[in-house]
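Internal tracking record. Fields below are filled automatically when a chain is submitted to the structure queue. Please do not edit lines marked as system-generated. If the sequence contains nonstandard residues, flag them in the REMARKS field before resubmitting.
Queue: standard
Priority: normal
Entity type: single polypeptide chain
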Amino acid sequence: MIQSRQLEAFRAVMLTGGMTSAADLVRITQPAISRLIRDLEDETGLQLFERSGNRLRPTREAGILFKEVSRHFTGIEHIDRVATELRKSHMGSLRVACYTAPALSFISGVIQSFLADRPDVSIFLDTVPSQTVLELVALEHYDMGLSILTGDYPGLMVEPLPAFRAVCILAKEHRLAEKETIEATDLNGESLICLGPPSLLRIQTDATLDAHHVQCGRRIESSLALSVCDLVSRGLGVGIIDPFTANYYSTRDLCLRPFLPAIPYHFGMVFPSGNPTPRLVEEFRSALLKALAALPYETM
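SYSTEM-GENERATED OUTPUT FOLLOWS
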């Protein structure tokens, strides 16, 4: 049976690229690391590394296995963080999971105002991808979460929030920066810096541009809207992103413009199902709704 210590040694070698550096990472000797790797290869029946002198090169099988091992250790790290928070927990603690865009600034403002008159309340904020928010809240690792919504979510109470409109971002010197509103046809022939294909906003953007027969170059893609902003600010193209990220980055040589036809940006709050909502969670929910209502973004 595969042992956790073997997986830890394998992960260390993959991360550091060598037995000696891996040994330093996990604080054991180099011979011990080598033995654990040999034991793991024997247990799995796989050759995980090709050896050439003192150098190691991971095999294709090692790369595939590493992805699964990484998921395993990510889960352990989450459990460890939750356990730490539980050890520190007391009456008046709140655990919130939030996806990246609102966590850049918006949720920090909500927390700041919420704690202003609650000196005995503590909040743990975890910034993770939307799917992870849903999974962790359903498992009751968190009291509530803020996530992009794309379907049905068993084990959760879902409260959709008003859909904001996606925003077109441009460098200040861009030819379209003088327009008050950017229409889909304005982007014909432009270089569009896109979010990755798994993004719902990317799918909606592609569908909108296709419907208007707009042809855009797509030489650059990024999994992070924040990176899209940086690339646009360098004059490498235009972007269509969520208003949270656009607003956070707006002071850095970017123009934010409404985009037509409007592309909805759906997100919402999620809570564990099956239990009454604690008073403190309900109070934070109300504070969040109040902060959303005060935002200058256009809703649909």
